[in-house]
Amino acid sequence: MEGTEAKFMENGVKKPVSRDDLIHFIRSVVSSNEKQQEKDLFYVLDLGATRSLVNTWFYNLRMVQPFYAVKCNPNPAFLKEMAALGTGFDCASLAEIETILSLGVSPDRIVFANTCKMESHIKYAAKVGVNLTTFDSICELEKIRKWHPNCALLMRIKVPETSGATFKFGSKFGALPDEIVPLLRAAQEAKLQVIGVSFHIGSRAINFHAFEDAIQVAKTTFDTATRLGLPKMHVLNIGGGFTSGPKFTEAASAVKAALQKYFPNEQPGNEGLKIMAEPGRFFANSSFTLATSIIGKRVRGGVKEYWINDGVSGSMNFLKYGHDELVCTPLRLTTKNPTCKGMKTWNSTVFGPTCDPEDIVLKDFELPELDLNDRLVFHNMGAYTASRGNDFNGFKTSAIPTYFANRN
């Protein structure tokens, strides 16, 4: 982590940094490090945006405790802020659990949300007191019975794929309808505690009526467990799939309506239903901005072509799946109009730095004339960016530094 920071406060409270302030801050970082080539590529973390998103979550879904999905972005400073703001954490491996515990987070704020875990990881969870996990197979129950029999369990169920999500999980995760009774009976025979149900409607959902379909299936599973004589379930994990902005308000309304319909007599609290969620993208995406540098250029067939020092093997790895649009601001360093507003633009292509011919970041994109060492600033770069990038061709995504645009 880098020490350079800018503070943006209003009445003593962190607030998100404006786009103009962010660009000004990036220029200041570039200026202060102009002789240090390794600082040409960096992230900016806006902790004010993070706090605002957490406040938005609790304002709209105060009955749902978020367990941030660490896989989305494990940046240490970001995780520390999330911990301070009172969220729990969705961990999928020993390493992720170690990371969260190292922040001083108590193990009861962690759900080991991986339905197929290595035995060594289950042993570690038992050792450190992470006592809540998910399962969707007989094999997993056998491993848990052997290595962590006191662990509370959430049955991950497959729900109808009606959300229009970009990424669906049903082919890999979740018990099928005809598997639910055998799994509950197997847990009962093994004397394991199944305390609730978990599901995920898919990442980047667009049809939030899917929450009603999913919560209905969850309620049926609750009722099935009661019919089989298991202790009453009291935990519902509604997974992720949330994005910030107006879509979140729509999703929150759908969740609340479905809970009222299928769990009308269950009030969240010590004696009632505990509701969890596992959002990742919602908190991480807009909290991070990526500042890249122009490292090469040419003109070919009337198209201006640029190379930058990050690409689809690094922070833009998600472009391989063709589902995300990049939000880009050009930044010229030697002009009184740094963001190029009103300037003439040309059809442009932007390549990443590797020798992979498919390392194309932008194509048929309008950009002004840019020079070597000018910048392309990419917004909303916190979700599945650094965490999914690799070090192909020696370009080390893991080594990209982070600056803080808003920090006490």
Structure description:
GO terms for molecular function: ornithine decarboxylase activity. Residues 53-284 form the Orn/DAP/Arg decarboxylase 2 N-terminal domain. InterPro entries: Ala_racemase/Decarboxylase_C, De-COase2_C, De-COase2_CS, De-COase2_N, De-COase2_pyr-phos_BS, Orn/DAP/Arg_de-COase, Orn_de-COase, PLP-binding_barrel. Its EC number is 4.1.1.17. It comes from Hibiscus trionum. By secondary structure, this protein is α/β, with parallel strands linked by helices. The two termini are 15 Å apart. Helix 8 (210-227) runs parallel beside helix 9 (246-262). Helix 7 links the parallel strand 8 (152-156) and strand 9. It is elongated. It has ten helices and 18 strands. Residues 1-13 have low confidence and may be disordered. Strands 3, 12, 13, 14, 15, 16, 17 and 18 form an eight-stranded mixed beta sheet that branches. Strands 6-5-4-11-10-9-8-7 form an eight-stranded parallel beta sheet. The protein folds into two domains: 9-47 and 285-406, Lyase, Ornithine Decarboxylase, Chain A, domain 1; 74-279, Alpha-Beta Barrel (TIM Barrel), CATH 3.20.20.10. The longest helix is centred in the middle third of the chain and has 18 residues, at 210-227. The chain is 29% helix and 23% strand.
